[in-house]
Design a protein that fits this description.
single chain; 421 residues; alpha+beta; Helix Hairpins; BirA Bifunctional Protein, domain 2; 2 domains; eight-stranded mixed beta sheet; 12 helices
Length: 421
């Protein structure tokens, strides 16, 4: 959500920010509706003041025996007018909020301009891809091992589902424990096991609604299946005023995630890169306004640590204006090397949302002794996607005979298993 006062004071800057996103100017429409709503609010205040004044006069006239019929008729008319104005003001407010809720966050000044992922800028590379003769993709390896079953998954649930079994199922479980241990024991994140279904206002708070309703799954009871643990974790502070001195909060969770993959027809149809259901360890930070930029760098480093421990080659890029997500002000993507595809693919996305989500949630902080409050800043990142980590291990640790070497750091989580045959 955007600060309406900033749009009033700097409409040209607001439109320029939308232009960076490839969107048309919107300040004129917003300010017109804002002016109409404010005029309605002024009319309501004037009508209420007139009604209050008349009511006092009526009381005085009745005490003196004067005829107050005319004033009583005016009070009745004012009551009807106020009711009409209240409906009008609510409608104008809802329309204004809907427009603002559908506009993306303003980008940080140092986000590179560009139309799509081709304009993303690489910041650093870590590790070097191994030389693998005729590398196979994960689904070829998994099916040959008999541990990755797409046929049964399709029978049970349809397309974009995968059934892992045996050692690969154990690896999926082990990776979640491995990641959570790093983030809780070394980086100070508090682990949660949150609900996997949320209410409308919770999905709205992190900007999944209203714009991205088609990307979500909705239950028959009206709850939404979470697309990421970012949604419940960030909303822990929904509607709260927290002590500024207690920030930052750092939360983590391993959950199933559910996405409809609307608009992804034809993309990554083979294998388990793009699924309706997958598991992910999520990182969320709630910070004071002056802490979020440093926290963004820290969070990205936490996610990178997982890949370093697994000795997987990766690169870190900053997303350009055309590729940055709706709620993000700035995003770093971590892309792991997949030899089977001969390319880097995203495995973690770490975003600083500034106060964009906090305004939607009305989440604020206050320093001890201060009367005023400030909106908190929110950050989220994958710490990291478990399914894609399974893929990366399979492809980077594959052997000529089709077996998979278990990364050394993961072996104690897999009962000492060193190789999957």
């Amino acid at each position: 959500m955007h600060d309406l006062r900033l749009i009033r004071d700097y409409p040209e800057a607001f439109d320029a920010a939308l232009k960076r996103r490839g969107m048309p100017a919107a300040s004129a429409e917003i300010l017109k509706l804002d002016a109409e709503r404010r005029a309605t609010q002024t009319a309501m205040q004037e009508a209420q003041a007139r009604r209050n004044d008349n009511s006092k006069q009526i009381g005085e006239m009745k005490r003196t025996g004067a005829n107050a019929d005319a004033l009583m008729q005016e009070v009745a008319a004012l009551k009807e007018k106020l009711a009409t104005l209240e409906v009008q003001e609510r409608e104008q407010g809802a329309k204004l909020e809907d427009i603002l809720a559908r506009l993306p966050n303003r980008l940080a000044d140092d986000v590179p301009d560009g139309a799509d992922e081709k304009a993303n800028k690489e910041i650093r590379r870590t590790g070097s891809p191994k030389e693998i003769a005729k590398p196979r993709q994960h689904f070829e390896l998994g099916e040959a091992l008999g541990l990755m079953d797409f046929t049964t998954a399709a029978k049970l649930s349809g397309a974009r589902f995968t059934m892992l079994k045996g050692a690969l199922a154990r690896m999926e479980r082990a990776l979640g424990d491995f990641m959570l241990d790093i983030h809780t024991n070394e980086f100070g994140y508090t682990e949660f096991s949150p609900p996997l279904m949320v209410k409308d206002e919770i999905a709205y708070g992190t900007a999944q609604l209203p714009k991205f309703a088609e990307d979500l799954f909705r239950t028959t009871t009206g709850l939404w299946l979470i697309p990421t643990a970012e949604v419940p974790l960030t909303n822990i502070v929904n509607g709260d005023i927290v002590n500024r001195d207690d920030l930052p909060y750092r939360f983590t969770a391993r959950t199933a995630c559910f996405r409809s993959e609307a608009g992804s027809a034809g993309k990554d149809t083979r294998g388990m890169l793009r699924q309706h259901q997958f598991y992910k360890v999520e990182l969320v930070s709630i910070t004071a306004p002056d802490q979020s930029e440093a926290e963004h760098e820290r969070m990205t480093a936490c996610a990178e640590t997982v890949l370093k421990r697994l000795e997987l080659p990766f690169r870190t890029v900053v997303l350009c204006s055309g590729d940055t997500g709706f709620a993000a002000r700035k995003t770093y993507d971590i892309e792991v090397w997949l030899p089977g595809q001969n390319t880097y693919r995203e495995i973690s996305s770490c975003s600083n949302c500034w106060d964009f989500q906090a305004r939607r949630m009305n989440a604020r902080c206050r320093a001890p002794g201060d009367k005023g409050t400030a909106f908190v800043h929110t950050l989220n990142g994958s710490g990291i996607a478990i399914g894609r980590t399974v893929i990366a291990i399979m492809e980077n640790y594959q052997q000529p005979d089709g077996s998979i070497v278990v990364p050394e750091a993961l072996r104690k989580y897999m009962g000492g298993m060193e190789i999957i045959r």
